[in-house]
Amino acid sequence: MYRRARRLAGWLSLALTATLILAGCGTTVLDGRAVSMLFDPSRAGGLPAGDGPSGPRPDAPPPSRAAAHSDNGPVDRLALTAIDDLEQFWSEHWNGALTGTFTPVAGLVSYDAADPAAPRVCGNELYGLSNAFYCYDGDVLAWDRGQFIPGAAQYFGEMGVVGVMAHEFGHAVQAKAHLVEKATPVLVKEQQADCFAGVYLHWVAAGNSPRFVLSTGDGLNHVLAGAIYIRDPLMTQEEAILTGDAHGSALDRISAFQIGFSGNADQCAAIDMDDIVERQGDLPQFLSYDAHGAPSLGDSAIDADLLADLMTTLGDVYSPQNPPALNLELANCPDAETISPASYCPATNTINVNLPALQELGTPKSEEQGVLLQGDNTALSVVTSRYALAVQRERGLPLESPVTALRTACLTGVAQGRMAEPGSPLALSAGDTDEAISGLLTNGLAASDVNGVTATAGFTRILAYRAGLSGDPEQCYQRFAS
């Protein structure tokens, strides 16, 4: 949803940037702790990156608890197994990190949202409520076994369901640790719950769960896709104030999850509005208005003019001595693979673009169309990453390695962070970063080397991009040194 700068007068924004900073001594830190392994392309959140089985262990013990109104089917068995696992984890990892005393959730309720006879829980009518939720007042965790949980399993796998339950259980953790109250902003509650889910799933991915396994490649990618799916819809600032229940953009939710997956429960407990505001920068969170005063909903058309504006903007951001040229058709390259929809050729210092394919990648789509999330920045972030390769070549850096792939993602984030600043010839709009991280997760091209080889873990690709959003090129070069 890029906009030319002249169309952004008066835009209102709150924004989230990455929490990554570089200490003066050169030690990489995340929220104040050393993260030497976080930016390793062979790892994901400090764990070895790779594909493998994800889901319930064949020898997992049967659920020890029962849910009211359950049909005792496979959906409820999966949900109850996840609750057993979560209760084991938090009972073993409570002391020293959280205040209060851990106790199991008092009530568990399974229901079918399509059934007019669905029960009431905590005063809520559940007929038509396809969701999962935790009720603070009654210490009850409930889920729709008819549509919501099966849908999560269909699109995001069984560990996607476990991720949903981990998030809802995160709200129980908040209540039992006395971290929130009714007046606490919803965004704080949601960020903490996403973070707590990350802490638990790191334990699973490390091989410590007796009930589940989670690969740090495709398995974790599906969990992250679920976090993107439950993002807030795009709204104007006025609409957001009226609803008053912001849960977070995809970038918000992924960022909080990554804090937990890479860290500890005490860091999740420390999340409050001051912390969230401190992590905010210039990235737009709200829809702007068009010349007629209506919300600007459409993405920009990807054409020669927009790409020319992008090249001008990237020249301003990176200031290369020898800027790459743009060629609006793919061409053979003697020293690199030709990758559609965009490639960088070092021999000619040219970005070659398959314009029809790039336009297809940038056509707005969503989950209803069988695509996680797609828009103009899904495509333009790929072109930006190819420009970042030209900048690395001018610096004399190698262009063929997993480290190159992550450094490229970081530099792409730098450029897009700068595009959110006032005065940029081409300006970022609300939803653009969400489109970028969706692309990083699904195709990874914005985190690939000159031959289109991506870093293994979507988690780490997104982390590198986030590092750039709040940084500068030199920080990318230091973090991702060859």
TrEMBL record:
InterPro entries for the chain: Uncharacterised_pept_Zn_put (IPR007343)
Stretch list, region Disordered: 45-72
Annotated source species: Mycolicibacterium diernhoferi
Protein's UniProt name: Peptidase
Domain of life: Bacteria
Biased composition (Pro residues): 55-64
Matching SUPFAM superfamilies: Metalloproteases ('zincins'), catalytic domain
Pfam families assigned to the protein according to its UniProt record, in alphabetical order: Zn_peptidase
